[in-house]
Amino acid sequence: MSEPRIDKWLWAARFYKTRSLAQQAVEGGKVHLDGQRTKPSKAVREGMTVTVRKGPDEWEVRVTGLSEKRGSAADAQELYEEDPESFARREKAREQRRLERASRPVTDHKPNKWERRQLERFRKKQKR
After folding, report:
1. Considering only Cβ atoms within 10 Å of each terminal Cβ, which end of the chain, N or C, has fewer?
2. Cα-to-chain-centroid distance, residue 6
3. Does 128 have pLDDT greater than 90?
4. Bridge-partner residues for 52, per DSSP?
5. Could you tell me which CATH class the domain 6-127 is placed in?
6. What was the pLDDT predicted at 97?
7. What is residue 1's predicted lDDT score, i.e. its pLDDT?
8. Residue 107 exposure: Cα atoms within 13 Å on the Cβ side
9. Whole-angstrom Cα distance, residue 9 to residue 69?
């Protein structure tokens, strides 16, 4: 099989829903190939390391299979193998985000005009 482009491989491995989203991520510097920034047309070979950043999460995977066609999710998982440290970092960050969400105060309503103005006054005092 010929070596697929990185944007096609990312799409086939189901990191991105469309190839154009994968292409934009590569051009935006969100994808690194063997630790280097790359172009969307760069060919991918087995054994290469791909680092993908999507939002707060970052995957570091080793390419174990090549495909230019998008298949099922089970087929996509066979195209790469995630580094155990990468998985642990993502899980730790996910847990941290969950705890941060849980520690935020929960209100039973949206603030009204009077409450918004009180909040603004409080924030101004905090900045001083």
Report:
1. C
2. 16
3. no
4. 31, 59
5. alpha beta
6. 93
7. 58
8. 5
9. 8
Q: What is the mean pLDDT of residues 42-47?
A: 94
Instruction: List, as one string, the DSSP characters of the chain.
Output: -PPPBHHHHHHHTTSSSSHHHHHHHHHTT-EEETTEE--TT-B--TT-EEEEEETTEEEEEEE----SS---HHHHHTTEEE-HHHHHHHHHHHHHHHHHHHHS---SS---HHHHHHHHHHHHHHH-
Structure tokens at 95: 């847990």
41: which 2 tokens?
Answer: 């047309």
Cα–Cα distance between 20 and 8 in angstroms, integer?
A: 9
Is residue 120 exposed (0-12), middle (13-18) or buried (19+ Cβ within 10 Å)?
Answer: exposed
Pull the structure tokens for residue 11. 């799409």
| Residue-range domain boundaries for the chain | 6-127
